[in-house]
Structures are given as structure tokens and as C-alpha cells.
């Protein structure tokens, strides 16, 4: 296991370097004078040139790239016009809020999505199956930001039960979590239903039933274990979607995470801040994928010897 983890974590710097290189090329290809933008609209030509020299923008691109990469290694992401300095401490300060929202959404997805899929499969072509399938279609069709606005109008404005914005406590996490997790719940429930139905048709389930095991016990003892492998895959892949989807949800609910900060950075063309947030997203996604592979090995012991 240690060798496996060492190999996986060793790939992270290579992927991050590739992403940094792509972002550097994109940002340098954007029209406009970076020094003039940093100096401000009222800056004189002399002030613009001073900023150009200070930030090293007068050097060849390869030299700028090398300086940029060496700075990233020691945690210097460059000059952010939003924070007037290195944006990394500010991004890290907001990261726990985004992780809390994404973790709550994943937990809600597991608690609701898997049981819903199993119940729909166990009662196939009966009323519970129809109701769950109808809910799945509805959740997939509704954009999460629109669902968020409906929940605000209903639970916050109409009933006054929950806060509609900010991070003032656990109650403020409820509506953003539901809005963010809704689509993933639908995907997981639909996938779980299909896998359970397929597993129920296999010989080992027929054998278990022929030995007198009830359908419920056969599901619990034999089917659910095999269902976990594709389920973990979907949850791991969609965790990246949750990080990306949190951008809109955080802005809608004024949630103080890095998704909201990313929209601010894009609106003011703060490329340094955009890059810092994108790299945080990339590293988070890579670590989540490694965690999924580790869970695979516990769910399916055969992978440990593959």
C-alpha cells in the first residue's frame, strides 16, 4: 500500500506542472498589457514601466516561466491585484468553507442516493420505483442554481426556517448543500438502481435465494458489496464536479469559499488569483482520486494483488 501511495503522489507534481504550463501560456496569450493593468487606469507611463520591471515582465518569457515555477515551489504565486501581494494565504483561508460545503454535499449524496437506488431496484416497476425515478428525472433537469433560488424562496423567505446567505452556522449550510448535492444524488440513485437490478439477475443471487435467503438478506449480504465498486467510482468522479459546481452555489448563497473568490478574480482579471484557485482545485481533485483508489482496494481485495 505504501508503494502504491508513493507512486500515486509522485504523479501529482507532474500534473500540476503541466497545468501551470498551460495556464502560463493562456495568460500570456491574453491581449493587453499586464503591467498597465496592475499599475491601474490612472498610472503614468513611468509608473507602468516601474511595475513591469518590479514584476519581471520585461524579461524573456522563458525566464518569466522559470521564475514563476520556482516561486510556486516555495509558495509564492505572484502578485495578485485583488490582495496586492501573494494570494495563497487568502485562498487557504477560504478553502475550509469550500471543503465543508463539498463534504456535506458528498455525505448527503451517500445517505440519500444509495438507499434511493436500492429501494427503486428492490421495488422495480412498482410505486416506489416510479416515484424515485420521477424524482431523479426532476433533479437532473433542474439546474442547481435555480433549485437554490426555489429553496431560498420556500425555506428562507416563505417559512423563515433557514438563513438564505452567509456562513453564520450549521443552519446556513443546509440549503447550499441540498442545492449542490441534488444532481449528484439523482445520478447516484439512477446508477445504483441499474447496478442492483443487474446484480439481482446473476447466478450467485439465485443460489442464495434457492438456499432460502430472503430478497432483503440477499441484497444486504451479497449484492451491496458488489454495488459499492461502481458507486465509489461515481462519487469520486463527481467530487470534482462538486468543487466546480460550488462556484455558482457559493456566489448565490454568498458562501465565503474559494469558488466565490474565483468568480471575483475572473471579473477583475486577476490571473494570479485565478491560477492559485485552479491549482487548489487540481490538487484536491488528484487527492480525491487517490482516495478513491485506496477505497477500491478495501472494497475489492483482489485489486491489492493485481
UniProtKB/TrEMBL annotation:
Residues 95-292 form the ABC transmembrane type-1 domain. It is found in: Cell membrane. One of its GO terms (cellular component) is plasma membrane. Its main location: membrane. Keywords: Cell membrane, Membrane, Transmembrane, Transmembrane helix, Transport. The keyword Secreted does not apply. The chain crosses the membrane at residues 9-27, 99-123, 130-155, 167-189, 223-243, 273-296. GO terms for molecular function: dipeptide transmembrane transporter activity. PROSITE patterns: ABC_TM1. It is a multi-pass membrane protein. Gene3D superfamilies: MetI-like. Belongs to the binding-protein-dependent transport system permease family. PANTHER family: DIPEPTIDE TRANSPORT SYSTEM PERMEASE PROTEIN DPPB-RELATED (PTHR43163:SF6). This is ABC transmembrane type-1 domain-containing protein. The lineage of its organism: Bacteria, Pseudomonadati, Pseudomonadota, Alphaproteobacteria, Hyphomicrobiales.
